[in-house]
């Protein structure tokens, strides 16, 4: 479970990027995080993962505060950033072993997971190549594989489907569903509204740092008295007059 309570975040020369945000992402659910560019999605996710400090409020992951006990909190989640251009001078296998070492994944389990995941994502034949030679989609796949390697209970994914081919995107969506169905937490941002509508149990919509809606599709339709698609309601909610 992720608990975001009365969180605020600002940057120099800018109004608050996040304004008094409270959000509970429960176990056993896939929660989609939506908002237009600049709405505060990535800022929120970076505070959740400890990359950015919290100005005010608190964020806990499985009851562990990210700002006060960051090491323990970071052991509970896996994070896929919106830009997978990291560790480019490492070979694919070197990166995965590096992640395995950080999280103390035993060699037998590590190798089994590496074999399974990289074959599912169709990158097993490229593990001896340097990540800098990978396409954007392949870089995304190696980062996702690293995230899943230590089997964290919480997945925090920032635009995880971007750059993936249809088969790999289907595989990841199926993994997300299975992970949540086991009682774990999946939180992901996306611009793919149809994917969110089909896959997610709950949807959070943010704009200009403020939460506009949080609930399931039934609640969305009831609150706004409409049977329109998520896309239509989203565009109406985030329309800047």
Automatic annotation (TrEMBL):
Residues 2-233 form the ABC transporter domain. It comes from the Bacteria. This is ABC transporter ATP-binding protein. It comes from Virgibacillus salarius. One of its GO terms (molecular function) is ATP hydrolysis activity. Keywords: ATP-binding, Nucleotide-binding, Transport.
């Amino acid at each position: 479970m992720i608990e975001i309570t009365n969180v605020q975040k600002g940057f120099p020369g800018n109004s608050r990027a996040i304004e008094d945000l409270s959000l509970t992402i429960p176990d056993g659910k896939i929660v989609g995080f939506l908002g237009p560019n600049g709405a505060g999605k990535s800022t929120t996710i970076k505070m959740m993962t400890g990359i950015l400090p919290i100005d005010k409020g608190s964020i806990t992951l499985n009851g562990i505060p990210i700002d006060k006990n960051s090491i323990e909190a970071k052991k509970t989640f896996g994070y896929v950033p919106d830009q997978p251009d990291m560790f480019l001078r490492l070979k694919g296998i070197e990166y995965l072993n590096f992640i395995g070492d950080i999280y103390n994944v035993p060699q037998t389990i590590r190798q089994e997971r590496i074999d399974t995941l990289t074959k599912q994502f169709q990158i097993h034949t490229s593990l001896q190549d340097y990540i800098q030679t990978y396409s954007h989609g392949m870089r995304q796949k190696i980062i996702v594989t690293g995230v899943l390697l230590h089997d964290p209970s919480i997945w925090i994914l920032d635009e995880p489907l971007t750059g993936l081919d249809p088969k790999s995107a289907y595989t990841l969506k199926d993994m997300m569903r299975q992970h949540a169905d086991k009682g774990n937490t999946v939180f992901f941002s996306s611009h793919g509204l149809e994917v969110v509508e089909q896959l997610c149990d709950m949807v959070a919509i943010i704009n200009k740092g403020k939460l506009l809606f949080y609930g399931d599709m039934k609640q969305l339709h009831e609150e706004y008295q409409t049977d329109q698609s998520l896309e239509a309601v989203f565009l109406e909610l985030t329309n800047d007059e």
